[in-house]
Write a structure and sequence with these properties.
By secondary structure, the chain is mainly alpha-helical. The chain is built from 17 helices and four strands. The longest helix is centred in the N-terminal third of the chain and has 89 residues. It is a multi-pass membrane protein. Keywords: Membrane, Transmembrane, Transmembrane helix. It is found in: Membrane.
């Protein structure tokens, strides 16, 4: 979510920031101190917040991006598997129904062919029917009246006889007419009166045409009609009429489309839902990253306000981050030593863990406590990084196993052979051979596929990617370890700009430690006096007797300081009273003024001066 700021506005903001900074440096020591404090603040908690952004960016660009890619690969593999199943089901359905569809197509074609053959038979018989039923060449009135219906055989014989007589009579008329025409033409051509009668005389022999009348006897006696023709004609005519009127072939089928897979739409909807959900989560994650980047843009202001807050608390809270044994603290203690007053250095064992010596390079207890707390805060980040990397590796392992052990090769073979033989040579046999013969089908199918393209192809993170992911977290841990030294620098910077305030803070700390020392000695005196009045335990009596009887055992049977509990060393000072078994370390003996608390008198007050009200001091992390 980058800010949409024009270049002109950026220039104005830059000049405004430069002006405010210059004015602050010129007029306010607090502003100057806060500006210098930004350096150790960048190496402290505020700087770690900026490094934290690199940790999240490394997780996002490393295992997060690889995890997202593997999830997308899983989605692609699922979609491919579902689509492959749908395609296989379609191929199997096509292979199983192909013979039936082929038979249905052939039956439709055979029905059309049967209707065509029937039409051809009717057309062929129609010519014979027209010839038999035709009335050309005769007159039905010429046939004799018998009073009953004549058969087809009798009708056809009568028609044939009458047609034969009609043909003879027609020939006679044409022959006579032809002689007359020839005679007229001859008379026109020959002009000589006598010769034309002689020459045209043969054209008048038309009586010769009447000789064809002798053929009427042949028409009656030798008619060329078979005796079984009428009966056969009636049967064939009935069959053809029945074939054309009562017989028809049609094949009707209805094609219905059904879903081959009931869950296909459900699977498609599931893919859409998964894709939409992943896109929404990706958009939300991208929006969160953009918003986080926008917040990082204001890191400078956040660090400046934090540094200014430290400056304000340093100047207004005298106990804030007031736990350092500084040079001025040592000067006060040295001046009091010269005046033979109660001093604080070196500190007691119980007091050392509460203070920091800035010149010592080793980590000290308050710093270690704060450092451990900061390292503990890094544990959730480490667990988050391990979780994301582990989840990414787990998904990669599963997808890798699927890729190597889930290869399947599909092989489907199908064959269909059907043969129907119709014997005979009759018309019905030929018709059945043309229709039922459509069942003679032969189909072979072979399908070979595999799920190779549907296998997931996951990617694993390399060592370099793991290293790049872990480096920001390692840098964050190193900043937690090294933050103590920049934190010591904060007090030095503030003391440089506010020396009077630093002296007041050190004096307050010195006076407070004097009061604590007095109270501590008062409590310890009472405790030691009570312990001295109690009878010693049996184990202590035995250990004292062994130390007195065998002095060489003292290195193994060591006592502790009565005041602070430090184990015995050669520098420990025993009580001068032979009846007192109290033992003191060098610092406690010096603080007690070479006086045993167990058997000595009560001491006067060790410190009287105090310059400030008491306020709890602590380490500012």
């Amino acid at each position: 979510m980058p800010l949409d700021i024009s270049d002109k506005l950026k220039v104005k903001l830059s000049w405004w920031l430069i002006g405010v900074t210059a004015l602050g440096w010129a007029t306010s020591p607090h502003f100057r101190c806060a500006n210098l404090l930004m350096v150790p603040k960048f190496l402290g908690k505020e700087g770690r917040l900026y490094v934290l952004s690199f940790v999240f960016a490394a997780v996002y660009n490393g295992p997060g991006a690889n995890l997202w890619y593997n999830l997308m690969e899983t989605k692609r593999s699922m979609e491919c598997v579902v689509e492959l199943q749908v395609n296989h089901t379609g191929l199997l359905w096509h292979a199983s129904t192909a013979p039936l569809r082929q038979v249905m197509d052939e039956l439709v074609k055979s029905a059309e062919m049967l209707n065509a053959e029937t039409h051809n038979v009717s057309e062929a018989f129609m010519q014979l029917n027209e010839q038999v039923a035709s009335e050309d060449g005769y007159d039905l009135k010429q046939r004799p009246e018998t009073g009953k219906e004549s058969s087809t055989q009798q009708l056809y014989e009568t028609k044939t006889k009458l047609r034969c007589e009609t043909v003879i009579q027609t020939g006679l008329l044409r022959c006579t007419s032809h002689f007359q025409k020839m005679y007229k033409k001859c008379m026109k051509r020959v002009k000589l009166p006598l010769f034309r009668h002689l020459i045209c005389l043969p054209m008048q022999f038309g009586f010769l045409c009447h000789t064809v009348k002798f053929m009427r006897h042949w028409c009656k006696e030798r008619i060329p009609v078979d005796g079984n023709f009428g009966h056969m004609y009636d049967r064939v005519n009935g069959s053809v009429n029945s074939l054309s009127q009562e017989f028809s072939a049609s094949v009707a089928y209805q094609e219905e489309h059904h879903e081959m897979l009931v869950g296909t739409e459900v699977a498609a909807q599931m893919r859409e839902d998964v894709t939409s959900q992943l896109r929404q989560e990706g958009a939300r994650l991208g929006l969160a990253v953009s918003f986080f980047r926008l917040l990082l843009s204001f890191t400078f202001l956040f660090v400046f306000f934090s540094a200014f807050r430290y400056t304000y608390q340093y100047c207004h809270k005298i106990g804030f981050d007031n736990c350092y044994i500084t040079t001025y603290f040592r000067q006060i203690d040295a001046r009091r030593r010269e005046q033979n007053k109660q001093t604080l250095l070196p500190l007691l064992k119980e007091e050392v863990p509460s203070f920091i010596f800035p010149c010592k390079p080793a980590l000290q207890r308050p710093e270690r406590q704060h450092m451990v707390m900061e390292l503990i805060r890094c544990i959730p980040l480490l667990l988050f990084l391990l979780f994301v990397c582990g989840l990414d590796h787990f998904i990669f392992t599963i997808l890798f196993v699927i890729q190597n052990h889930s290869f399947i090769e599909y092989s489907y073979q199908a064959s269909h052979h059907l043969s129907v033989n119709v014997m005979g040579t009759s018309l019905m046999a030929q018709l059945l051979r043309g229709t039922i013969g459509a069942l003679n089908t032969s189909f072979e199918s072979e399908v070979e596929t595999s799920n190779l393209v549907c296998l997931p192809r996951p990617t694993a993170m390399t060592r370099q990617q793991y290293l790049n992911t872990c480096l920001p977290l390692v840098l964050l841990a190193l900043l937690c370890l090294a933050q103590v030294y920049p934190f010591r620098l904060r007090r030095a910077i503030a003391a440089f700009y506010f020396p009077k305030r630093e002296k007041a803070r050190v004096l307050f700390l010195y006076n407070k430690l004097l009061r604590q020392r007095k109270h501590f000695l008062h409590l310890q005196r009472g405790r030691v006096a009570r312990q001295a009045r109690l009878p010693p335990e049996l184990g202590m009596v035995v250990m004292r007797w062994c130390r007195r009887r065998w002095p060489r055992l003292r290195r193994f049977l060591r006592l502790k300081c009565t005041l602070c509990g430090t184990p015995e060393t050669p520098q420990h000072q025993p009580c001068p009273n032979p009846d007192c078994f109290a033992l003191y370390c060098e610092s406690c003996w010096r603080v007690m003024g070479a006086t045993c608390l167990a058997c000595g008198p009560a001491d006067p007050d060790l410190a009287r001066e105090s310059s400030e009200d008491e306020e709890e001091q602590g380490y500012a992390g």
